[in-house]
Amino acid sequence: MHSEYPPTLPAEYADIEFENNAQRLPLVLCLDTSSSMAGQPIQALNNALMEWTRELHDDVSLSYSVEVAVVTFGGQGVVAWRGPQLLAPRAPVSPFVPAHTFQPPQLTAAGVTLMTEALELSMHIVAARKAELRASGLQYYRPQICLVTDGLPTDGTGHLTDAWHRLIPVLADEQRARRFRLYAIGVGGITDMGEQVLQAFAPKFNARLQGFPFRELLQMMSASANAEQKGAGDEVFEKIFSQFKTQRPAWES
């Protein structure tokens, strides 16, 4: 599914709406919007995205360097969003939006859990964005991808699938090469097997959380972006993540 997107995107979209040559930090939110997220969970996610967007706009250091893209997997299949707009699979436009102009989509929950394909699309749009930035002579920080799910990977008919195994060596290589930092977060009633999938995807940065603490999760992503800007070592990210997992926000202390 991710292969439907062009490997590079038109140059006229490469630097939209930025007024300076700040180093960029691409951030992808890869969000489960399958039917199990219906009701309170998807409402909590939408509310958290709105609050986080306001905080991003108010954060001077992040608002002019972070670029946000949203990928969802659910009733519409695997799709990318440019702010509140759903992009067609072959749309000749980058899904990344400067944080200071980002507005979140209004998400609904339905459908199956095409987690494998969503993560592949997330990796693809990060690679395409980095190529754009390089072509424009712009530098970038290590991108971040945050996968959030409450279930197990399925195929298009909703049946459990082992297709996610194909991602394990790819993700391991990408992490070794420091091409992006992946966070894999399980929420709600995610099972032991679901947790094992996330551990395989992101051995260092996986979590299984009670309930749907999306607000804290998004604040953790901001804290991680701030640390990335400061050139922090791996131990700093591990500390931020460890404190997030135990619900003690390191960035508020």
UniProtKB/TrEMBL annotation:
Coiled coil: none
Domain VWFA: 26-240
Domain of life, per lineage: Bacteria
Organism taxonomic ancestry: Bacteria, Bacillati, Actinomycetota, Actinomycetes, Kitasatosporales
Gene3D superfamilies on file: von Willebrand factor, type A domain (3.40.50.410)
InterPro entries xrefs: VWF_A, vWFA_dom_sf
Organism of origin: Streptomyces lutosisoli
Name the record gives this protein: VWFA domain-containing protein
Cross-referenced SUPFAM superfamilies: vWA-like
